[in-house]
Amino acid sequence: ATPKITGTQRVAPCKEKDEDFGEFDGEGIAIADGYVYFTGSHSCSGKKSKYKPSSYLLARFAHSSANAFLDGDPAVERTWRGADMLLNSRVKDSYGKKKGKGTNIEGLAVTGGRVYVGLRTPVGKKKAYILSAPVAELFARGEQPLSRKSVEPISLKLGKGVGIRDLAALESGGLLILSGPTIEQEESPYKIWHLPPPLDAKGAGLVELATIKTDAVA
Questions:
Q1: I want to staple 109 with a disulfide (CB 3.0 to 4.6 A). Which of 15, 159, 169, 198 is the partner?
Q2: Using CB atoms within 10 A of its CB, is residue 103 exposed (0-12), middle (13-18) or buried (19+)?
Q3: Which of 56-70, 99-113, 181-195 has the lowest mean pLDDT?
Q4: Which residues fall within 8 angstroms of residue 1, CB to CB, at 6 or more apart?
Q5: What is the pLDDT of residue 83?
Q6: Is 142 exposed, middle or buried (0-12, 13-18, 19+ CB in 10 A)?
């Protein structure tokens, strides 16, 4: 009875497949322009490396405000095009690989009319990745895929074996980034970074703000 999911489903080549949706594992959340946005991890789940459709969704709904109150439950928009961002980027070969090596979204931010996703994995040589695409194209009606030209990558030098654990948009148009271990490496600390606007492909102006001192690993 739910509205159709826009875009085209990109079934990842995980070892096992699950046809049931189950829970929506919201790995990232963002609030912008009257909407609340959620993203699944877009990764194979569990030790069995299983494909769960609900993990490969990007969704949003309009929230109440001081001037607009919702009557009943909000209408939720869901799209498969988050996977298109991954498959139209340099991390495409990691789509459907097991955890620790495959694509895994853990950060979400929305600013300047674009959705930004931060990847916990994969990571390159001392590089982590952010991908972005226009909100309007990600949530457009129909089954058409997201255009390759619409996807913009950002490479960040965060350290060896370090991925992105969370993103937050700033009013300036910049981003706050929480980095940390891709798996449970004790030698990889959690850090907070500032990426100022304009957000370019090489992460120009990236500044480390703080190292978080904690005994937590996972």
A1: 169
A2: buried
A3: 56-70
A4: none
A5: 98
A6: exposed
> How many other C-beta atoms lie within 10 A of the C-beta of residue 125?
6
Please determine, for residue 76, whether its predicted confidence score (pLDDT) is greater than 60.
yes
Which positions ≥6 away from 6 have C-beta within 8 Å?
77, 78, 79, 80, 81, 139, 140, 141, 142, 143
Do you find a cis peptide bond into 198, omega within 30 degrees of 0? yes
Distance from C-alpha of 80 to C-alpha of 75, rounded to nearest angstrom: 17
Asked if residue 122 has a cis previous peptide bond (ω within 30° of 0), the answer is: yes
Radius of gyration of the chain (CA): 17
State the Cα–Cα distance between residues 67 and 86, nearest whole angstrom. Answer: 37
What is the per-residue pLDDT across 91-121, written as a single tens digit (0 to 9) for each? 999 999 998 899 999 999 999 999 999 999 9
CB atoms within 10 A of CB 123: 22
∠ CA 82-83-89, nearest 5°, is 100
Closest by Cα among 189, 36, 153, 171 to 111: 171
Name every residue whose Cβ is closer than 8 Å to that of residue 163 and which is 6 or more positions away in sequence.
Answer: 104, 106, 118, 119, 120, 121, 123, 128, 179, 180, 181, 182
Question: What per-residue string of b and e applies to 69-100 under the rule 16 or more CB within 10 Å gives b?
Answer: eeeeeeeebbbbbbbbbbbbbebeebbbbebe
Q: pTM to 2 decimals? A: 0.93
